[in-house]
Amino acid sequence: QVQLVESGGGLVQPGGSLRLSCAASGMIFRMYVMGWYRQAPGKQRELVAVVNPGGSTNYADSLKGRFTISRDDAKKAVYLQMNSLKPEDTAVYYCNAESIMTRMGSWGQGTQVTVSS
Fold it and tell me: What pLDDT does residue 33 have?
């Protein structure tokens, strides 16, 4: 059973940085596309970034240059480095794992990121 546990969220001032982590278990990590999504209050969940097995990445166009996704297959972890944070980045950030074999996805419980002065 796939389990994803996010950490690293919190309160940060505009212009600040945060690094989110997602620890995975119960899966063959290298067989999964790993991603970060976010959901702001009253809005739909949206893609932030994904990293494929092998390391290629895709980002939401609006976030390119500020956010960086990475994965460590040995640690079964995926990270999201967020720089130059803005109030509109405030959301619950979710880790996602999608099997390249079945295309079935799993979600973590989410971690709150609040950008405010």
Answer: 98
Integer Cα distance of 72 and 22 in angstroms: 10
Q: What are phi and psi of 105, to 5 degrees?
A: -115, 155
Mean pLDDT in each 10-residue stretch from start to end of the chain (117 residues)?
96 98 96 98 96 96 94 97 97 98 96 97
For the chain, the first-to-last Cα distance in angstroms comes to 40
Torsion of CA 84, 111, 68, 105, to 10 degrees: -150
Amino acid (1-letter code) at residue 15: G
The two structure tokens encoding residue 28: 């063959």
Kindly give the pairing relationship between strand 57-59 and strand 46-51. antiparallel
Q: How far apart are CA 95 and CA 57, in angstroms?
A: 15
What are the backbone dihedrals phi and psi of residue 31, each rounded to the nearest 5 degrees, phi first? -95, 15
